[in-house]
From TrEMBL:
<keyword id="KW-0489">Methyltransferase</keyword>
<dbReference type="GO" id="GO:0008168">
    <property type="term" value="F:methyltransferase activity"/>
</dbReference>
<keyword id="KW-0949">S-adenosyl-L-methionine</keyword>
<dbReference type="InterPro" id="IPR029063">
    <property type="entry name" value="SAM-dependent_MTases_sf"/>
</dbReference>
<keyword id="KW-0808">Transferase</keyword>
<dbReference type="Pfam" id="PF13649">
    <property type="entry name" value="Methyltransf_25"/>
</dbReference>
<dbReference type="InterPro" id="IPR041698">
    <property type="entry name" value="Methyltransf_25"/>
</dbReference>
<feature type="domain" description="Methyltransferase">
    <location>
        <begin position="48"/>
        <end position="143"/>
    </location>
</feature>
<dbReference type="GO" id="GO:0032259">
    <property type="term" value="P:methylation"/>
</dbReference>
<protein>
    <submittedName>
        <fullName>SAM-dependent methyltransferase</fullName>
    </submittedName>
</protein>
Protein backbone atom coordinates (compact mmCIF):
# COMPACT_ATOMS: atom_id res chain seq x y z
CA UNK A 1 0.00 0.00 0.00
CA UNK A 2 1.09 3.56 -0.55
CA UNK A 3 2.52 5.42 2.38
CA UNK A 4 -0.19 7.96 3.15
CA UNK A 5 2.26 10.54 4.51
CA UNK A 6 3.44 10.91 0.92
CA UNK A 7 1.38 13.06 -1.45
CA UNK A 8 -1.24 10.57 -2.61
CA UNK A 9 -3.06 11.13 -5.89
CA UNK A 10 -6.39 9.57 -4.95
CA UNK A 11 -7.95 10.17 -8.35
CA UNK A 12 -5.13 8.29 -10.06
CA UNK A 13 -5.64 5.42 -7.61
CA UNK A 14 -9.33 5.21 -8.53
CA UNK A 15 -8.43 5.34 -12.22
CA UNK A 16 -6.26 2.25 -11.68
CA UNK A 17 -3.03 4.17 -12.17
CA UNK A 18 -0.17 5.22 -9.94
CA UNK A 19 0.55 3.13 -6.84
CA UNK A 20 -1.73 0.21 -7.66
CA UNK A 21 -1.98 -2.13 -10.60
CA UNK A 22 -5.72 -1.93 -11.28
CA UNK A 23 -8.38 -1.52 -8.60
CA UNK A 24 -7.17 -0.10 -5.29
CA UNK A 25 -7.09 -2.86 -2.68
CA UNK A 26 -9.71 -1.23 -0.45
CA UNK A 27 -12.36 -1.69 -3.18
CA UNK A 28 -13.69 -5.03 -1.93
CA UNK A 29 -17.09 -4.81 -3.63
CA UNK A 30 -19.10 -4.68 -0.41
CA UNK A 31 -19.21 -2.67 2.85
CA UNK A 32 -16.50 -3.42 5.38
CA UNK A 33 -17.90 -6.32 7.46
CA UNK A 34 -17.41 -4.49 10.78
CA UNK A 35 -19.56 -1.57 9.59
CA UNK A 36 -22.10 -3.83 7.90
CA UNK A 37 -22.61 -5.49 11.29
CA UNK A 38 -23.37 -2.10 12.88
CA UNK A 39 -25.83 -1.27 10.12
CA UNK A 40 -27.62 -4.60 10.48
CA UNK A 41 -27.74 -4.09 14.25
CA UNK A 42 -29.65 -0.83 13.71
CA UNK A 43 -26.87 1.49 14.90
CA UNK A 44 -27.19 3.95 11.98
CA UNK A 45 -29.91 6.60 11.61
CA UNK A 46 -30.81 8.63 8.53
CA UNK A 47 -29.53 10.94 7.20
CA UNK A 48 -26.05 9.41 6.86
CA UNK A 49 -22.76 11.02 5.82
CA UNK A 50 -20.33 8.51 4.29
CA UNK A 51 -17.03 10.34 4.81
CA UNK A 52 -14.45 9.41 2.19
CA UNK A 53 -16.96 7.16 0.44
CA UNK A 54 -14.80 5.93 -2.46
CA UNK A 55 -16.88 3.62 -4.65
CA UNK A 56 -19.48 3.82 -1.87
CA UNK A 57 -20.57 0.23 -1.34
CA UNK A 58 -21.62 1.20 2.18
CA UNK A 59 -23.67 4.16 0.94
CA UNK A 60 -25.34 2.01 -1.69
CA UNK A 61 -26.16 -0.78 0.75
CA UNK A 62 -27.67 1.71 3.18
CA UNK A 63 -29.68 3.41 0.41
CA UNK A 64 -31.02 0.02 -0.70
CA UNK A 65 -32.18 -0.47 2.89
CA UNK A 66 -34.09 2.83 2.88
CA UNK A 67 -31.53 5.22 4.34
CA UNK A 68 -30.82 8.63 2.85
CA UNK A 69 -27.06 8.91 2.34
CA UNK A 70 -24.60 11.53 1.14
CA UNK A 71 -21.16 10.27 0.16
CA UNK A 72 -18.24 12.68 0.01
CA UNK A 73 -14.85 11.90 -1.50
CA UNK A 74 -11.94 13.96 -2.78
CA UNK A 75 -11.73 11.85 -5.96
CA UNK A 76 -14.04 12.91 -8.81
CA UNK A 77 -13.43 9.51 -10.42
CA UNK A 78 -14.69 7.67 -7.33
CA UNK A 79 -17.69 9.98 -7.02
CA UNK A 80 -18.58 9.47 -10.69
CA UNK A 81 -18.40 5.69 -10.24
CA UNK A 82 -20.57 5.85 -7.11
CA UNK A 83 -23.10 8.09 -8.83
CA UNK A 84 -23.29 5.74 -11.81
CA UNK A 85 -23.71 2.72 -9.52
CA UNK A 86 -26.56 4.46 -7.67
CA UNK A 87 -28.30 5.16 -10.97
CA UNK A 88 -27.84 1.57 -12.16
CA UNK A 89 -29.33 0.24 -8.92
CA UNK A 90 -32.25 2.70 -8.88
CA UNK A 91 -30.94 4.43 -5.75
CA UNK A 92 -30.27 7.96 -7.01
CA UNK A 93 -33.03 9.52 -4.89
CA UNK A 94 -31.55 8.17 -1.66
CA UNK A 95 -27.81 8.09 -2.40
CA UNK A 96 -26.08 11.23 -3.65
CA UNK A 97 -22.38 11.96 -3.92
CA UNK A 98 -20.14 15.01 -3.93
CA UNK A 99 -16.48 15.50 -4.81
CA UNK A 100 -15.20 17.68 -1.97
CA UNK A 101 -12.47 18.09 0.62
CA UNK A 102 -13.84 16.42 3.76
CA UNK A 103 -11.56 18.56 5.93
CA UNK A 104 -13.40 21.71 4.80
CA UNK A 105 -16.95 20.54 4.23
CA UNK A 106 -19.45 23.38 3.71
CA UNK A 107 -23.19 23.50 3.20
CA UNK A 108 -24.19 20.61 5.46
CA UNK A 109 -24.31 22.20 8.93
CA UNK A 110 -26.22 20.17 11.57
CA UNK A 111 -27.59 17.86 8.88
CA UNK A 112 -26.51 14.26 9.48
CA UNK A 113 -27.77 11.89 12.17
CA UNK A 114 -24.93 9.44 11.45
CA UNK A 115 -21.37 9.98 10.20
CA UNK A 116 -19.50 6.85 9.05
CA UNK A 117 -15.76 6.76 8.35
CA UNK A 118 -14.91 3.52 6.56
CA UNK A 119 -11.08 3.56 6.49
CA UNK A 120 -10.72 7.29 5.79
CA UNK A 121 -9.11 8.39 9.06
CA UNK A 122 -5.78 6.64 8.47
CA UNK A 123 -5.67 7.93 4.88
CA UNK A 124 -5.54 11.56 5.98
CA UNK A 125 -2.27 13.36 6.66
CA UNK A 126 -1.83 13.46 10.44
CA UNK A 127 -1.85 17.24 10.35
CA UNK A 128 -5.30 17.22 8.68
CA UNK A 129 -7.06 15.09 11.29
CA UNK A 130 -8.19 17.97 13.47
CA UNK A 131 -9.70 19.92 10.56
CA UNK A 132 -11.48 16.75 9.41
CA UNK A 133 -12.95 16.01 12.85
CA UNK A 134 -14.07 19.61 13.24
CA UNK A 135 -15.60 19.63 9.73
CA UNK A 136 -17.72 16.51 10.16
CA UNK A 137 -18.73 17.59 13.68
CA UNK A 138 -20.13 20.77 12.14
CA UNK A 139 -22.05 18.69 9.57
CA UNK A 140 -23.52 16.40 12.24
CA UNK A 141 -26.85 17.06 13.92
CA UNK A 142 -27.03 17.26 17.72
CA UNK A 143 -26.92 13.73 19.13
CA UNK A 144 -25.54 12.27 15.89
CA UNK A 145 -23.56 9.04 15.96
CA UNK A 146 -20.00 8.79 14.62
CA UNK A 147 -18.37 5.48 13.65
CA UNK A 148 -14.75 5.06 12.57
CA UNK A 149 -12.98 1.97 11.23
CA UNK A 150 -9.23 2.69 11.20
CA UNK A 151 -5.98 0.72 10.96
CA UNK A 152 -4.30 0.07 14.30
CA UNK A 153 -0.58 0.58 14.90
CA UNK A 154 1.30 -2.46 13.64
CA UNK A 155 -1.50 -3.59 11.32
CA UNK A 156 0.89 -3.97 8.41
CA UNK A 157 3.55 -6.67 8.72
CA UNK A 158 7.14 -5.63 8.02
CA UNK A 159 7.10 -7.07 4.50
CA UNK A 160 4.12 -4.85 3.62
CA UNK A 161 5.48 -1.63 5.10
CA UNK A 162 5.20 1.26 4.73
CA UNK A 163 1.45 1.57 5.16
CA UNK A 164 -1.09 4.27 6.00
CA UNK A 165 -1.13 6.48 9.10
CA UNK A 166 -2.12 3.81 11.61
CA UNK A 167 -3.23 4.88 15.09
CA UNK A 168 -2.83 3.71 18.65
CA UNK A 169 -5.94 3.63 20.81
CA UNK A 170 -4.64 6.57 22.85
CA UNK A 171 -3.88 8.58 19.70
CA UNK A 172 -7.36 7.89 18.30
CA UNK A 173 -9.07 8.70 21.58
CA UNK A 174 -7.18 11.97 22.03
CA UNK A 175 -7.93 13.18 18.50
CA UNK A 176 -11.63 12.32 18.40
CA UNK A 177 -12.49 13.38 21.95
CA UNK A 178 -11.68 17.02 21.14
CA UNK A 179 -15.01 17.20 19.32
CA UNK A 180 -16.98 14.00 19.98
CA UNK A 181 -18.09 12.08 23.06
CA UNK A 182 -16.50 8.63 22.74
CA UNK A 183 -18.75 5.70 23.65
CA UNK A 184 -16.48 2.78 22.75
CA UNK A 185 -13.22 1.82 21.07
CA UNK A 186 -12.66 -1.87 20.42
CA UNK A 187 -10.33 -4.06 18.35
CA UNK A 188 -11.65 -4.80 14.87
CA UNK A 189 -10.53 -5.96 11.42
CA UNK A 190 -10.28 -4.25 8.04
CA UNK A 191 -10.58 -6.46 4.97
CA UNK A 192 -8.67 -5.49 1.81
CA UNK A 193 -7.73 -7.22 -1.39
CA UNK A 194 -4.11 -8.31 -1.63
CA UNK A 195 -2.23 -5.56 -3.52
CA UNK A 196 -0.57 -6.63 -6.76
CA UNK A 197 3.13 -6.37 -5.94
CA UNK A 198 6.33 -8.17 -6.80
CA UNK A 199 6.99 -8.87 -3.14
CA UNK A 200 6.38 -12.09 -1.21
CA UNK A 201 2.76 -13.20 -0.68
CA UNK A 202 1.18 -12.27 2.66
CA UNK A 203 1.12 -14.85 5.47
CA UNK A 204 -1.87 -17.18 5.22
CA UNK A 205 -3.01 -16.31 8.74
CA UNK A 206 -3.77 -12.78 7.52
CA UNK A 207 -6.23 -13.99 4.86
CA UNK A 208 -9.98 -14.45 5.19
CA UNK A 209 -11.96 -17.22 3.49
CA UNK A 210 -12.18 -15.14 0.32
CA UNK A 211 -8.43 -14.59 0.10
CA UNK A 212 -8.57 -11.01 1.34
CA UNK A 213 -6.23 -9.55 3.92
CA UNK A 214 -7.58 -9.10 7.45
CA UNK A 215 -5.61 -6.38 9.18
CA UNK A 216 -5.83 -5.14 12.74
CA UNK A 217 -7.98 -2.08 13.29
CA UNK A 218 -10.06 -0.16 15.80
CA UNK A 219 -13.79 0.45 15.61
CA UNK A 220 -14.70 3.67 17.39
CA UNK A 221 -18.26 4.68 18.32
CA UNK A 222 -18.96 8.22 19.45
CA UNK A 223 -21.71 10.86 19.43
CA UNK A 224 -22.18 14.60 19.24
CA UNK A 225 -23.50 16.33 22.32
CA UNK A 226 -27.22 17.04 22.06
Amino acid sequence: MAHMTEVMDWDSAYRGEGHFDGEPPWNIGEPQPELAALWRAGRFRSEVLDAGCGHAELSLALAADGYTVTGVDISPTAVAAATAAAAERGLSERATFAAADITALDGYDDRFSTVVDSTLFHSLPVESRDAYLRSIHRAAAPGAGYFVLVFAKGAFPAEMAPGPNEVSEIELREAVSRYWVIDDIRPALIHTNVPATSGPPPPLDLLDDRGRLRLQAFLLSAHKQS
